[in-house]
Design brief:
9 strands, about 15% strand, globular
Length: about 325
Amino acid sequence: MEKIKSKQEKSLTFSDLSGMVENISVSEPNKRRGATSAEIRRLFEERGFVYPRQNLSFQIVKGGTGKTSLSYSLAVRAYQYGARVLCIDFDQQGNLSRSFNIQAKDKYVWLNLFRDRIDAEQAVIELADTLHLIPSNLNNSRLDVELSGSASNLRDMIGDKLAPIRDRYDLVIMDCPPAINKINTAIACVSDMVLIPVNPDPYALDGLEFTVSELERVKSDFKLDFDYRVIWNRFDARERLGAFYIHELSQNKRFAEKVMPIVIRTDASVKNAVFDSRSVFDLPKRSVFREDVDQFAQEIIGITKWKETHWGGNA
């Protein structure tokens, strides 16, 4: 395992948690102090919260819907909430790796795990104590070719390689290429939930239809029971058509129950964070994107439901 210093070690403060977690006793000067992921985890576990064990993948046939920005932001926020997170970049463009400021040209990627029998441990990069990454580069463009010429079982290919290290993590977050191919099939097979980012425009809705049809085929062919959820991303309230397409999808009986109760609004903070190779949670100015991704992370980790069950939604 290679260790690379991360920029995201202390972003949640004890003051941030005051409206979320009961009975925090912190002296006034320390309320604004950044809390480590381990400290946050201890606070939650002492109050009965159980971190979920989930394999999550971001998939949609259409490019440009924001899969990578959501994968990255979810991973960072989940880590800051105390989760132990492994990210796997399967997209040959390596945008998730670059989001973490990792230049992966000479790093082990999934192709090396599959073709060269490299152990997963050798490919993992430690970004922070419990935030890790298996990166990607252009070598992963050969994954489908290698899979086509192999007798490997797609259902177990990823799970078998992850098995020696899987117990170290709560969440495995996988960013997928925008395609229908064998590697995405293998990723779906190991997923507990597939997250489908959709922009409120007609082309993205077409991509949603195609993606869901493929996921249903995979579930049927491999006799699997993974779930999928649709997440509205890059919503701009200034664009009238956005509200129209959100309403249209809510009326679609096939998808209505699969749409998450969160809309990720767009703003300049995303581009600014990418330019600075930072997370939106590290920027000094709050933003609507940051607020929405925070709610998204709480929903995925289970904090939202836990608050409602234990504190009636108000800690």
